[in-house]
Each structure stands twice: as C-alpha cells, then as structure tokens.
Design brief:
mainly alpha, Arc Repressor Mutant
Length: 85
C-alpha cells in the first residue's frame, strides 16, 4: 500500500458497509477499495478523459450515402429544408 485515506461516513453508510463486509467476509477497507476501483472504472477516470476518446469507436461507423456531405453540408441542408417547406 502506498497511501492511507481517512474518510468520515454517515451512520447509515457505515452500517451498510459493515453489513456488506460481514456478508462478503471481507474487511471494510477491502469493500471500500473494491467500490472505489469500480467507480473509477465506470466513471472513465483511467484513460477516457477527452470527449474524442468517448466517441472514437463511433467515428466512421455510419454512412449517409451522400459522398460529399462533409464538403457540401450547407447545400444539402438547404435542399432538405426547401423540400419540407
């Protein structure tokens, strides 16, 4: 262990932690460590800190069928608005 952290818990949270630790037959510190590891993983605190990293897998995965959509998006939008009006 590299560092120690002291945390004050409300009574209800401490009671729930104690019950879970007894149920799992673990130390309360182990349950807190597991919960913190899971929270950090789910919150994306490890690697994915930039918005790009969160959508990287989606980029290029959709095709509109319009080859010049990036270059002529304004013209395509105007044409669509005229059709809807």
């Amino acid at each position: 262990m590299n560092s120690q952290l002291t945390v004050r818990l409300p009574d209800d949270l401490e009671k729930g932690l104690s019950i879970l630790a007894r149920k799992l037959r673990l130390k309360r510190a182990d349950v807190v460590r597991m919960a913190l590891e899971r929270f950090l993983k789910e919150a994306g605190a490890e690697e994915e800190s930039r918005p790009y990293d969160k959508v990287r897998g989606l980029l290029g995965s959709f095709s509109s069928g319009i080859s010049d959509l990036g270059e002529s998006h304004r013209e395509h939008l105007l044409r669509k608005f005229r059709r809807l009006a």
